[in-house]
Design brief:
14% strand; 6-stranded parallel beta sheet; single chain; 18 helices; 3-stranded antiparallel beta sheet; Rossmann fold; 2 domains; formyl-coa transferase, domain 3; alpha/beta
C-alpha cells in the first residue's frame, strides 16, 4: 500500500486528528495512538455502541495500536521522545502550548528527530489573538461566518449536518503531511505543520465570497446561487412531506426540465442572476413538486438530463446502490457496518483492518521495541507511567 513503512505517532483526540491518521492507517501506515490516562480517547464513549464499542471509535481507530501513558511523568516524556525518533509523522490536536508544557512540542521532538513531520491541528491556529480560546467545530464555524448562512427553514442559523471545520482541517492537514513527506525525500528534513480549523473553513469557501469580498456586505443566503437563490439549485417538498433537490443551474438543465413540465416560458428567468428575479420559477416548482410523492418524482425524472436527486435519510444513503457499489459501506465478520475508504487507488489500494485496540493494549509491546527491558517496563508500570 502507498504508506507501507510509514510510522505515525498520534496524540490527537476526538475527530480531526484521528480521522487523518485513520486514512493513513487504511493505506498501510502503522499508527500508534497515545491515549491519555485515565479515560483514553473520548470518542470511545460518544454516541451509540455495538457490544460496548462506539460507532464513532470504530470508524476512527481501526487498525491502530494503542498505548496509554501518564502524561505528567518524566519517564513518559522520555518514552514519547524515543518513540518519536522511530516515527515519520506526529499528530497532535491539543490547545496551543499544551505539548510544549508536556515537553513533546515540535522543537523538543525535532531536536531528537529532525526527520519528523509534525502536524498540529487546533481551532484557531498557533498564532493570533484567539490562540488561547477553547473551541470545537461550532465555534470556529460561528467566528468564520459559516453559521450565519447555514439557515433552517425558519431563516435562523443552526448547526450544520457535518462537522465542517473538523473534517476540512483533517483532510487539509493530511495533504500537508503528505507534501512534507514528499519533500523530505529530497532534503531528509521534516517540518512543522500548523493547521487551524477556522483557516480550513475559509479556504473552502471560494464560491461563496462574492458579496463579502466584492461588495463588502453580508450575503442574503436565499438570494445566493448555492443557498437557494437559483430555482434550479434548490430543495423542494413533495406531496408526502419528503424532499427532492435540483442541483444543476446550467441553462440546458432548466430548458430540459421546463420543457417537460410545459413551461418553456420560464426558461429565460433561469438565466437571470440568483435572487428575486427567479421567484416565479421557484413558486412554480414549489407548487408542482407538491403534486406528487418523492417516489413518483424519482420515476418521472428517470432518464431525464436534469440534475435531480431525492433527499434521503442517512440510513437510506448507506443503503444506496451507488454507495454500496463504491464500497463506502463495509461489513466485518460480526455484521458491523463501517465507513469505507474514499481514496481509491488502482494500484496498491487501501485495505481496511477492522481490528480495534483496547485502551493501552500495545503499551508494553511498543516500550520493548524502544529498547526498554522487562524489568524497566515492570518498574514503569509499578510507578504509574502506564
Amino acid at each position: 500500500m502507498k504508506l507501507d513503512g510509514i510510522r505515525v505517532l498520534d496524540l490527537s483526540l476526538f475527530l480531526p486528528g484521528p480521522l487523518l491518521t485513520q486514512m493513513m492507517a487504511d493505506h498501510g501506515a502503522e499508527v500508534i495512538k497515545l491515549e491519555p490516562l485515565p479515560h483514553g480517547e473520548p470518542n470511545r464513549e460518544i454516541g451509540l455502541t455495538r457490544d460496548g464499542v462506539s460507532v464513532f471509535f470504530a470508524n476512527t481507530h481501526r487498525g491502530k495500536k494503542s498505548i496509554s501513558l501518564n502524561l505528567k511523568t518524566e519517564a513518559r516524556r522520555e518514552a514519547l521522545l524515543r518513540l518519536a525518533e522511530t516515527c515519520d509523522v506526529m499528530v497532535e490536536a491539543f490547545r496551543p502550548g499544551v505539548v510544549d508544557r508536556l515537553g513533546v512540542g515540535y522543537d523538543a521532538v525535532a531536536a531528537r528527530a529532525p526527520h519528523i513531520v509534525y502536524a498540529s491541528i487546533s481551532a484557531f491556529g498557533q498564532t493570533g489573538p484567539y490562540v488561547r480560546k477553547p473551541a470545537h467545530d461550532a465555534a470556529t464555524e460561528a467566528v468564520a461566518g459559516i453559521l450565519s448562512v447555514n439557515l433552517g427553514q425558519d431563516d435562523k442559523p443552526w448547526l450544520p449536518a457535518i462537522a465542517n471545520a473538523d473534517m476540512l482541517s483533517s483532510t487539509i492537514a493530511l495533504s500537508g503531511v503528505l507534501m512534507a513527506l514528499l519533500r523530505r525525500r529530497e532534503t531528509g528534513k521534516g517540518d512543522y505543520i500548523d493547521v487551524a480549523m477556522m483557516d480550513s473553513l475559509l479556504a473552502c469557501m471560494p464560491n461563496n465570497y462574492g458579496p463579502p469580498m466584492a461588495e463588502k456586505r453580508a450575503p442574503v443566503p436565499k438570494e445566493e446561487r448555492s443557498w437557494g437563490g437559483n430555482a434550479m439549485y434548490r430543495l423542494y417538498e413533495t406531496a408526502d412531506g419528503k424532499w427532492i433537490v435540483l442541483g444543476g443551474a446550467e441553462i440546458k438543465f432548466a430548458r430540459n426540465l421546463l420543457t417537460a413540465l410545459g413551461r418553456l416560458d420560464l426558461v429565460e428567468l433561469c438565466a437571470l442572476p440568483p435572487g428575486p428575479g427567479q421567484d416565479p420559477v421557484k413558486a412554480f416548482f414549489d407548487e408542482t413538486f407538491r403534486t406528487r410523492t418523492q417516489a413518483e418524482w424519482i420515476d418521472w425524472f428517470e432518464g431525464m438530463d436534469v440534475c435531480f436527486a431525492p433527499v434521503k435519510t442517512l440510513r437510506e444513503g448507506l443503503d444506496d446502490p451507488q454507495v454500496r457499489a463504491r464500497e463506502m459501506v463495509l461489513e466485518d465478520d460480526r455484521g458491523w457496518e463501517h465507513i469505507g475508504i474514499p481514496v481509491k487507488f488502482r494500484d496498491e489500494p487501501g485495505r481496511v483492518d477492522f481490528a480495534l485496540p483496547a485502551r493501552g493494549q500495545h503499551t508494553e509491546e511498543v516500550l520493548r521495541r524502544l529498547g526498554y527491558d522487562a524489568d524497566t517496563v515492570a518498574a514503569m508500570k509499578r510507578d504509574g507511567v502506564f
